[in-house]
Design goal:
This protein has 434 residues and is an all-alpha fold. It has 2 domains: 14-225, no CATH class; 252-434, no CATH class. The protein has 19 helices and no strands. Helix 1 (2-46) packs antiparallel against helix 14. The radius of gyration is 22 Å and the shape is globular. The relative contact order is 0.11.
Length: 434
């Protein structure tokens, strides 16, 4: 009887895993397709310079997105997946996280306003940056961490696709001339805000969770609890987003356009892996918490299979790089081809980085080691990107980004190998005691 019950539980877990994988795949395919449709249209309608400006604003606002997310997409997902059978604990986690995000939203808006109106580099187009901040507001109310932890991702998939589709269509309808560039961040932000509102209301009706703003003490506890994950993600931004900011300041909006155009396509291809990794994360979290050895063996299989697929896929894309860039970004963005080829190692490096860092180190409660890798990477990144960008413009920025991403993988690997060695010694000790 007990074996039948366990078999039923395992079957349900596998069904949920497959269902979440499908939902995340649909959402990822949509997020892959949408930029590939929008980017060439925006470049041809607004011109390379205005596209570069919008990209620059997106990069700046991304810092505040990371601050408001505060690593909750990892920490809260893990906490909810572990407490999935405890409704009271889930409601507590939800209210604590959402209260913290709202507080961070307000603080970040004040900081952004001070930056935009206080520095000449940004004050020439202040409302572009403020309109773009609407994406942060909307995204904050799309608690993908909640749905992933509950292993019910299809709900967030519906809200995202509906909201983004309506306002992406609005861009195609209303953005017809270069002077319409200010409409792009407005419509983009509205898409996220509508999706966030839908998700917020859905959680209230479907899961019967009422939002209650928590005390300053609870918010402070959340900030302390998630600090290593947040700092690690901030270091990632200091590596990727800072590179674009340095490029924009040194070389101007056109150089930003060449780099960002190629980078967005690379990340779109690289993000194909994201549904699998995100769907497996709560599953692996429970696996490692119940039996470290089984969880790590599963991760080893994912690394081997995933690496082979990504290497083969990247080789094909490299061969057709010129065709892909001219097809998607058009001939005005021909300079993006060399950037595209340089960055093609990043999908594999990102895959290994996520597996080694997020799925292994964080699930083994090694947040300090995870953070340390990004800290060192961020420190060495700044002089590298300054020097390479100064001498080689957007090509130098691409080389710097690739080198640092490779460094991160080797840093994660160093600490993971240490953990495997410790686990092996513990297994031998247990066997000898028996």
């Amino acid at each position: 009887m007990l074996d039948k019950y366990r078999s039923l539980i395992n079957s349900r877990a596998k069904i949920k895993l497959v269902r979440n994988l499908f939902s995340l795949s649909v959402l990822q395919a949509y997020d892959l397709l949408l930029p590939l449709l929008l980017i060439p249209y925006l470049i041809s309608t607004l011109g390379v310079d205005k596209f570069g400006l919008l990209s620059f604003a997106t990069v700046l606002v991304a810092y505040f997105q990371i601050a408001v997310d505060y690593g909750f997409n990892t920490t809260a997902t893990r906490d909810i997946s572990i407490n999935i059978d405890n409704p009271e604990k889930i409601e507590e986690i939800y209210n604590n996280v959402m209260s913290t995000k709202i507080a961070l939203l307000l603080v970040c808006f004040l900081v952004l306003s001070a930056v935009v109106f206080g520095f000449h580099q940004f004050s020439s187009h202040p409302f572009i940056y403020l309109f773009t901040y609407g994406v942060v507001i909307g995204q904050s109310f799309v608690p993908i961490w909640f749905f992933q932890g509950m292993q019910e991702v299809r709900y967030v998939t519906y809200s995202n696709i509906i909201g983004k589709s309506v306002f992406a269509l609005a861009i195609f309808i209303f953005v017809k001339h270069e002077q319409d560039y200010f409409l792009v961040p407005i419509f983009t932000s509205l898409g996220f805000i509508v999706s966030g509102t839908f998700a917020f209301l859905y959680i209230r009706s479907k899961f019967l969770i009422k939002f209650k703003f928590q005390s300053f003490k609870s918010i402070k506890e959340q900030l302390i609890y998630g600090k290593y994950m947040f700092l690690s993600e901030l270091k990632t931004a200091l590596i990727t987003n800072t590179n674009v900011l340095v490029l924009g300041i040194m070389s101007g909006n056109q150089a930003v356009a060449y780099f960002v155009g190629a980078d967005k396509i690379i990340r779109a291809f690289g993000n194909i892996q994201a549904p699998v990794l995100n769907a497996f994360f709560p599953f692996i979290s429970k696996k490692i918490n119940s039996h470290k050895g089984n969880g790590l063996r599963l991760i080893n299989k994912i690394i081997k299979i995933g690496s082979i697929i990504i290497i083969l896929f990247s080789a094909i894309i490299f061969y057709y790089a010129e065709f892909i860039i001219t097809l998607i970004l058009k001939s005005d963005m021909y300079n993006s081809i060399i950037v595209f080829k340089i960055l093609l190692l990043i999908p594999l490096a990102s895959f290994l980085d996520v597996i080694l860092g997020k799925h292994i180190l964080l699930n083994l409660n090694k947040g300090k080691q995870y953070f340390r890798v990004f800290l060192v990477a961020a420190i060495i990144n700044f002089p590298i990107v300054l020097g390479l960008t100064y001498y080689f413009s957007f090509i130098g920025t691409a080389i710097a980004q690739m080198l640092i991403q490779i460094f991160i993988v080797f840093g994660m690997l160093y600490y993971v190998r240490r953990e495997y060695h410790i686990l092996k010694e513990e297994s031998i000790l247990v066997a000898n005691n028996k």
